[in-house]
From TrEMBL:
<feature type="domain" description="DUF2264">
    <location>
        <begin position="1"/>
        <end position="95"/>
    </location>
</feature>
<dbReference type="Pfam" id="PF10022">
    <property type="entry name" value="DUF2264"/>
</dbReference>
<dbReference type="InterPro" id="IPR016624">
    <property type="entry name" value="UCP014753"/>
</dbReference>
<dbReference type="InterPro" id="IPR049349">
    <property type="entry name" value="DUF2264_N"/>
</dbReference>
<protein>
    <recommendedName>
        <fullName>DUF2264 domain-containing protein</fullName>
    </recommendedName>
</protein>
Length: 113
């Protein structure tokens, strides 16, 4: 995951200036809604299954197993922030990929030094 670091940075209040809280919240929320609405996310025994949008075992790596899927829960780290925190109260903003596909101007994301 790409989303766990974002969630952790949001929780710790350490998002880079180029990423606004409303942008990160909106992106994380949209991804979670899509992922959890896909269907077939839980197997017969109630465990999360491998995949981005439903059961997609063909995209997994050889070392991945059902226990690995609980890394998914790390995206919920911002729930540790109080309800009145700016992460929750700031305006929802488009994230970089959405801006790009909408033809909007956007700062390029890059690794932090």
């Amino acid at each position: 995951g790409a989303f766990q670091p974002l969630a952790l940075l949001a929780l710790k209040g350490e998002l880079p200036e180029s990423l606004r809280e409303g942008q990160v919240r909106n992106a994380l929320t949209s991804v979670m809604k899509r992922m959890f609405s896909a269907g077939e996310i839980f197997g017969e025994k109630g465990f999360l299954q491998l995949g981005f949008a439903g059961h997609q075992p063909g995209i997994s790596d050889g070392y991945t197993n059902n226990g690995s899927m609980y890394l998914t829960s790390l995206v919920f780290l911002p729930l540790g922030l109080p309800a009145d925190h700016s992460f929750w109260t700031s305006e929802a903003l488009n994230w970089t990929a959405k801006k790009a596909w909408n033809g909007e101007e956007f700062p390029k994301d890059h690794a932090e030094e």
